[in-house]
Amino acid sequence: MSRPETAEKQIIRFRPGLRSGVFLFALTALTACSPRADLIPDAAARDAGNPIPIYVGTTRARDEGTVFSKAQPDGLNYAVVNVSVPPDRAPGVVKVPSGKPDASTDFLTRDVMHYPDRGAFRAAARRALAARTNPRDEIVVTVHGFNNTAADGVFRAAQMAEDFGITGPVFHYAWPSRGEPLGYAADRDAALIARDGLEEMLHDLRDAGARDIVLVAHSMGTQLTMEVLRQMALRGDRATLSRLGGVVLMSPDIDPVLFRRQVEEIGDLPQPFVIFSSSRDPALRLSARLTGHDDRLGNITSVDAVAGLDVTVIDLSGTKDAASRHLAAATSPTLIGFLNGSGSLLRSLKTDATGKTGVLPGTVLLAQEATAVILAPVVAIEQELE
Predict the structure, then answer these.
(1) Alpha-carbon distance 281 to 198, whole Å?
(2) CATH of 29-250 given 3.40.1350, 1.10.3470, 2.60.40, 3.40.50
(3) Which GO terms describe its molecular function (predicted)?
């Protein structure tokens, strides 16, 4: 298949050479969330290497016992969490203590500092931006998904920063998920309520001088992210939208029809705009059933769902080494190796005028888990696959 001179659409398929149901999903989720992370500073982390600072914006209320409440919403507030990332682990893995904490194998919180107000956060963000080794490095803002505690999201942000080789400051937006596998409906409401908080955080980063902000959202957090982009577009806030250097949606838990309507109202999307999908994602299969739809954006089986939209879809259905099939993009050592190859998440995912992607070329990938890549306009791909 020849590659067109300009590729409006890209589908990149990773191919190697479950039955789903409420019980299976609940069992999987319960197993995955025991034990759960927390943000209480741990003495075992005090002498462990160089911590990764994660700047957290959240609409969770503060709680002396757990740093942030389990689900109680509040106004936007900020903190910086210094996370000790263990040296003895496989890429993509976040391990928390099940017994005595061990800084060599466990993700731990070294310390937490709350900012008294948004002005103090903007000043801290400005200092972090000025301290970058390369002033052109992107600013990454992660948004967690369903069934996440505050610590789950923060530790995952630290894992991605370490594994993807992100050298610029990393920010994380923690909306008040209940962190419960059976709290799906409550989390959908909480994500919508949290829209203004994420928008305000992006405004604060803009005012601190941030450019090339890359939004990296997972699962239910992708719907929150899309709603915020739509909200800013409807307000005419192009000043903030222009600061976005890319959007990455990992396993997006969004109805494809809703996604298309959101894109139509947003207009020109930040580029690159990347969707990581997998038809083997058991969480999204269940989500589709719970919402009464055939599929979600993160497990589409046909490119018709995004035809004509200026997005790139990377299909991870064939990836076998991911620690989580619902977060394959951040837990597959193979994919992590590719995205870490350029030293910049943004450069890894950007495309040139010919449709070539940074470290994912339009030829056969020489990797165990990824053996074929297809780059072409969406209509051409459908014709080739028939």
Answers:
(1) 27
(2) 3.40.50
(3) hydrolase activity
pTM over 0.70: yes
Q: Is the pLDDT of residue 22 over 60?
A: no
Kindly tell me the burial class for residue 35, based on how many C-beta atoms sit within 10 Å of its own C-beta (0-12, 13-18, 19 or more).
Answer: exposed
Alpha-carbon span 335 to 164, nearest angstrom: 10
pLDDT by residue (tens digit) across 63-104?
A: 877 899 876 788 999 999 999 999 888 999 999 998 899 999
Asked which of 72-86, 94-108, 247-261, 283-297 is least confident by mean pLDDT, the reply is 283-297
- Weakest mean pLDDT among 13-22, 168-177, 204-213: 13-22
Q: Which residues, in sequence order, are CB contacts of 34 under 8 Å at separation 6+?
A: none
Q: Which residue type sits at 352? A: D
